[in-house]
Every structure is written in structure tokens, then in C-alpha cells.
Write a structure and sequence with these properties.
Length: 161
């Protein structure tokens, strides 16, 4: 189970994490907190479905939302940075996308998800297009987020390093 591996790595590196989720609706936080003892490293999360929440709570720039949209790499990166700052964690994770079955456009199809990871010195995002139904797209996005975090932690970047 990847969430258990993430927990072991976060604990070993003495790092904390927070989540900012839109299209996954809290599923990433759910996966992380399915591991007993996750309160040692998971500080909390924000389900920011509405743009006002992204802007007001996570400090996503209005200009980003107007020019790039809520489903964009820029928004995901700002969400990850915002939740990290808001909850005073070492790492912020964010998801934003179109779970479906409605809401897609030719430029931004159903299944498009941006995932971001932010630390004080590092911001990274991935773009995915998942071919599933709504629940499947949410699950795929949450799993990809956990995988991204695990890959980052495998570099050994921590306070104890």
C-alpha cells in the first residue's frame, strides 16, 4: 500500500504534509489518513471546490483563475503552495481537474487533472488525462498524487538528511 510507504518515508524524514483538493474531493487526505498514526505527519487538508475557496483560503491569484482557469498547472501549483503555507507544513499537495462526466471541453477534456507538490524550495506538477468514469478519475488522480509524493520522498529530501 503506497500510503503506508508514504507515511514511513515522511516519518523517517521528519516531514509534514497537507493537501489541497478540488476534483478529488478529499480522497488524497482519506488515503493518507487510512494509515494508523498518520497524525504524526499529516496536518490536514482543504477541499477547495469553489474558486472563491481557492482564492481566499489557498491564496490562488485571481489572475490565475481568470487567465489560466481552475484546471491548470498554475492553479495546482498555487494551491499546493497555499496549503503548505496555510497549514505550516513541509510539503503541500494539490489536485485540480475535471472528474466528469460533464464539464469537459476540447481544450480541457473530462479526465484532465493537474497534480502539484510544493515545498519551500521546490514546485512540481504533472498533467494527466484519465479515461475513466467520475469515480475512477478521482481514484486515479488520488493514486497518482500519492505516487508523486512517494517519488519525491524517495529522493531523501528531509529535515533529518
Amino acid at each position: 500500500m503506497r500510503a503506508r510507504e508514504v507515511g514511513e518515508a515522511l516519518r523517517a524524514l521528519r516531514l509534514t504534509v497537507a493537501t489541497a483538493e478540488s476534483c478529488t474531493g478529499g480522497l488524497v487526505g482519506h488515503l493518507i489518513t487510512n494509515v494508523s498514526g498518520s497524525s504524526d505527519y499529516y496536518k490536514g487538508g482543504v477541499v477547495a471546490y469553489a474558486n472563491e475557496v481557492k482564492e481566499q483560503l489557498l491564496q490562488v491569484a485571481r489572475r490565475t483563475l481568470e487567465e489560466k482557469g481552475a484546471v491548470s498547472a498554475e492553479c495546482a501549483e498555487e494551491m499546493a503552495q497555499g496549503v503548505r503555507a496555510l497549514l505550516h507544513t513541509d510539503i503541500g499537495l494539490a489536485t485540480t481537474g475535471i472528474a466528469g462526466p460533464t464539464g469537459g471541453t476540447p481544450e480541457k477534456p473530462v479526465g484532465l487533472v493537474y497534480i502539484a507538490l510544493a515545498t519551500t524550495e521546490y514546485v512540481y506538477y504533472e498533467k494527466h488525462i484519465f479515461p475513466r468514469d467520475r469515480e475512477g478519475n478521482k481514484r486515479e488522480a488520488a493514486d497518482a498524487t500519492i505516487k508523486m509524493l512517494l517519488q519525491y520522498l524517495a529522493t531523501g529530501k528531509g529535515k533529518g538528511s
